[in-house]
Amino acid sequence: MSSSTWRPDVALLDDVLDAHGGLDRWRQFTSLTATIVTGGEFWAMKGLVQDPNPRRMTVSLVREEGSLHPFGAPDQRTRFEPGRIAIEKLDGTVVASRDNPRESFAGHGLTTPWDPLHRAYFNGYALWTYLTTPFLLAGEGFSVVETALVVVNGERWHVLEATFPDSVASHSRVQRFFFGPDGLLRRHDYNVDVAGGFPGVQYVYDHAVFSGLSFPTRRRAYREETVMVSIDLSEISLS
Asked: Is 0.90 surpassed by the pTM of this model?
């Protein structure tokens, strides 16, 4: 979709969803699995080691749930939902868990050390958010408004500001999503509330189509000039 095809009589969100494959197609699926490789400086700030090994992340497309494997050991995975985080064996045996995990971040700053459950919760909500964008914005309880467009390197980016419902765990209650002339996501801004609220600016690249839906396969989240988190995605499958 070129910049001239934005239709003033149709909400921007509708155009964005169509550009990414369409809400009707999205609703044909109930889960998504992707291979991820993660890096960046954020993990060391939290006293954590991040290796370059690929992992598989599975998220629900009908509710906020997710699981990352492996996590901490080859036979372990995470089990995320907003009100509970767990690390478990592949047979379901619970290794560690925490109810109301958001409360455990109270008073945290940028360099407050994290334990494995902190990390598992962060991974869970962040990856669920990323892998369901922009379709999550059409979900119940989301409030979305179009704000002033911006021009980046001569390209006009349309902006949606979304207020997340209290029931959804994510970086911050208010987040901004930037879309290029083709309607595809270019950038995602938020505050990382679980780490002192620092502002994150995430650029996304290299969109690819899987099952008729478009996803960025590279994400780079910055704090000022520092790449805090990098995520490379591949082998995305929907079922």
From this structure: yes
